[in-house]
Amino acid sequence: MSRSIVRSALFVPGSRPERFAKALAAGADVVIVDFEDAVEEPLKRQARDHLGAFLLSEPQASVWVRVNAPDHPEHAADLAFCKQQPGVAGLLLPKVESAVQVAVAWQTGKPIWPIMESAKGLLALERIAHADGVERLSFGSLDLALDLGLNTDSVAAQLFLDQARMAVQLHSRGADLLPPLDGVYPAIGDPDGLQRAVRHAYDMGYGGALCIHPNQVAHIHRALAPSADDLEWARKVVQASVAANGAGAFQLESQMIDAPVLLRAQRLLALAVS
Questions:
Q1: Taking the model in full, what pTM does it have?
Q2: Are 175 and 129 spatial neighbours (Cβ–Cβ below 8 Å)?
Q3: Which end of the chain, N or C, is surrounded by fewer C-beta atoms within 10 Å?
């Protein structure tokens, strides 16, 4: 799979080492070992020990880590651990509110996915998106709603959250980042709702979503799979581009095809084989 295509990023608690291998076998594009929300305070240090032991026993494994937030007492130790572990591919940085916090995490040398989940973070979004080390942004809708005091079941809250999603995508493009990831869908037993939410985010330019249960992975991938008609169109466009010998613009079935249209076709085909 192309490194830029991440449809699903599956969390697994750092305090549950017996689930690490199962998470890696669940088919998610990325597995994130969580040191933050999913780990009780007394078990924070133990979570690092668990992951260290797992990576030592499985040297081919590659995971991301959601470290504790910048203001948490275990944050510095989390960063030091991740810096030393070749099996840690990158960091999810929660509750980011400044580019300075990103710079500290970037000292690990690992790519960073900041999670935008507070009002202060959104207000610093442009600086965070342009900070060194940031590969893509992710959106924490649940924590953001809590921070803002939104009634999450209301139309007004959804309007506000969609405006925030738009801002995250806008600044992602402005900083030439990879497509952002939407936040988790908490209702594990509602696959139809999950697919609708993921498709909604995709239609806003998102590449995929974070998730909290292995059963959600297939539903996310299904929501993002191109239709048969879309794939047929994309193949025709790419084939016509080859026949046009690199022309900047050409016609296909009375439709003008230029670079943006060709790029969309290529992205659809990439999703189909990922």
A1: 0.86
A2: yes
A3: N
